[in-house]
Amino acid sequence: MSGWDARLAWRTFNLNWFPIAALGFALLLGIVWTDFSLEPIAFGLAAAVAFALALIAYIHAFARAESADPKLIFWLGTTAQVIMLTAIVGPLSYIANALDWPLQDQTLLLIDRRMGLDSEAIAIFVNNHQWLAKCLEIGYGFIKWPLLGVPIILAMTLRLVRLQQFIAALNIALAVTIVISVFVPAIGTYYGLNLPPHERFPFINTVYAAQLRDILSLRDGSLRHLELFKLAGIVSFPSFHAASAVLYMWALWPVRGFSSIAIGINVLMIAATPVVGAHYVIDVIAGVALAAGSIILTNYLFRFACRSAIDTEAGLPVKTLPQLALGQG
Questions:
Q1: At CB < 8 A and 24+ separation, what contacts does 56-65 make?
Q2: Percentage of the chain lying above the pLDDT 90 cut
Q3: Measured between alpha carbons, how far is 138 from 133 in angstroms, rounded to an integer?
Q4: Cis peptide before 238 (omega within 30 of 0)
């Protein structure tokens, strides 16, 4: 397989493993240096699936050389990166939020109120319109599917460079989210308002209960054994739901027929975040800003990578994917 886009995408695909490895190393240090433990079966299963997909992608790239199918390589390889990344950042976010920095719920609530926004009034409005509550519940759950859907769509439509840009921006956004959450920990709007949502808003199916349970257990030391498939999203500020929605829309924007669908779904997910996710509105604004910053930084890095690739390949014969990976020419 050859071609400028494919070679640049392949170069970046390999580089995208480094931030994933760095996050994995941070998780390892967290397990070794603290009293946390990680249930090995679920994490091992996720790692094994990621390894198998990556291995198939690399074997196909090296064995088939110029006849390799870029759709298969980048679909399987990038899916492996997504699986490994999500398996790492879940436990890592728990370890980071166990550092017991003072909760910032009242500060975040005050910021919302200074902007003229009332989280309780928003929840009351949604609760009084059951159809809206159901729509937001569905919208909030959309965060999972694009993680696997975006690699398929971008690989099948040969948007190979955009796919690697998406993974790079996702890496940046997740890493920054975890760092910020250490210093701005919060449980959510219903905790800040001192409201029991299931009693006060019975028609809103919120994930707040899981956040409340796990964050308080982390802070009192009773939760130290992490089971991958039982972890909840415990980061309030910035909202990664909002950040991921922007990243999904940006990733699929060039794909005709999918851009409009992506906008509709992800705008709904952002709208659901303050109510179903119990996020402060400032969390959502920060998440959108984080995604925008990640995209800008990714575009800058890719411009640099393009210049570097042009300088490297100037006057040289076209390389196949394996040759490029091995630095041959």
A1: 61/1, 61/10, 61/321, 61/322, 61/325, 62/321, 62/322, 62/325, 64/1, 65/1, 65/320, 65/321, 65/322
A2: 72
A3: 9
A4: yes
Q: Which residues of the chain have pLDDT under 70?
A: 1-4, 65-66, 305, 307-329
Note the pTM of the prediction, 2 decimals: 0.89
Consecutive H or E run containing 13: helix 4-15
- Please, are residues 119 and 274 in contact by the beta-carbon 8 Å criterion? yes
In total, the chain counts a number of residues equal to 329
Whose tokens are 């990578």? That residue is 305
The number of helices, as runs of H, and strands, as runs of E, in the chain is: 16, 2
- Can you name the residues that pair with 225 across neighbouring β-strands? 37
| Per-residue tokens: 217 | 């257990």
Quote the radius of gyration of the chain (alpha carbons, Å): 21
**Cα–Cα distance between 12 and 305 in angstroms, integer?**
8
Tokens 């005050």 belong to residue: 110
Enumerate residues 6+ apart whose C-beta is below 8 A from 239: 273, 277, 279, 283, 284, 286, 287
DSSP per position, 227-295: -GGG------SS-HHHHHHHHHHHHHTTSTTTHHHHHHHHHHHHHHTTTTS---HHHHHHHHHHHHHHH
Which token pair is 194?
Answer: 């001192």
Q: Are 251 and 294 in contact (CB under 8 A)?
A: no
Q: What is the β-pairing status of strands 225-226 and 37-38? A: parallel
Q: Which helix (H) or strand (E) holds 226?
A: strand 225-226
